[in-house]
Design brief:
With 285 residues, the chain is mostly beta strands. It contains one helix and 26 strands. The chain has a seven-stranded antiparallel β-sheet, with no helix packed on it. The chain has a seven-stranded antiparallel β-sheet with strand order 2-3-4-11-6-9-12, with no helix packed on it. It has a four-stranded antiparallel β-sheet with strand order 5-10-7-8, with no helix packed on it. The longest helix is centred in the last third of the chain and has 12 residues. Bound molecules: manganese (II) ion (MN). Manganese (II) ion binds next to strand 5 and strand 10.
Length: 285
Amino acid sequence: MTVRKIERVIPALTVSEGAGVTVHRTLGTPALHYLDPFLMLDHFGSKNPNDYIAGFPDHPHRGFITLTYMLDGHMLHQDSMGNRGDLRAGGIQWMKAASGVIHSEMPQQTNGLMRGFQLWINLPAAEKMSQPAYQEFPAARIPTVNTDGVHVKIISGEYASQRGPVDDPHTQVTYLDVAFAPNTEFRHTLPAVLSAFLYVFEGSIAIGDRKVAAHNLVVLGLGDSITLTSAGQSARLILVAGRALNEPIVQHGPFVMNTEQEIRQAFDDYRNDRLVRTEARLGSA
Ligand code: MN
C-alpha cells in the first residue's frame, strides 16, 4: 500500500457562467486546466437567487460527459434527446453529450437554498462522435454507508462493497460524497492507476499533517490508499477518481475534441443545425 499524498491544492475561482450564474471553479482554470480525464469542476450555490436564477438557457456540448449532483434546491432541465425533468436534491444527472446535445439547466431554490456540483468527464476519441446517452437517479437510488461518524454516499464506483448507480464504462469514475462528524477518519483504497482528487465544501479536513479548508480542490498524488481526518468540526467533501485517457485534447468552450479540425467541425455543425444526431424530441413523452 502506498498512501496518496497531496500533490497540489487548487483554491476555487469565482467565475460567471451561463446567463450570469456565479460558480466556484477549480478544475478547468488556469491553475488546473485538465486532470485527465476530468475537464471541469463547478461548485454552484448561493443564498442569493440573483447569483443563478438566469440559469443556463439552451447551449450545446460535444465530446464529453456532464455529471451533475444536486445538494440542495433543484434544477429544471430539458435536452435535444427528449429528456426533460426536475433534478431534485440529492439526485444525479449523467449526460453523455458525445456527438452533440443541446440542453438547458435552470437551478431553483428550495427553502432559500441551492447547491450542487457539475463535473465534466472527457470521452476517449473513439466515443466522442458516438450516440448521446442519459442516466438520471433520484437521491433514494444513491447507496449510503454510515461507519463511525463518517457518512458516505456512493454516486459512482464502489465503497464498502456497495456500488453507485452511475455506470461509467469509459473512464471507470468513482464519485463519493463523504460527510465527517468532528474528529473522525475516512479510509479508502483506489486503484493506483486512477487520477484522483477531492474537493472540500464544508469545514476542513487533514491529509497527513496538512489541513485543507472548504472551497479547495486537492490533486492526490500516486498511490492507492487514502486517509482523511476531520478536526473539531464536521466536514464534507467529494472524492473523485477516474482512468486517464492520455490523448491530446483541444477544447473550445462547450466542445472538447482531439484536434483543431474537429473543433472547427463542431462549430460548423452547431451553426448548421447538424450538432444533434438524435432527432430533437423536445416536449414529447
Ligand atoms: Mn450544460
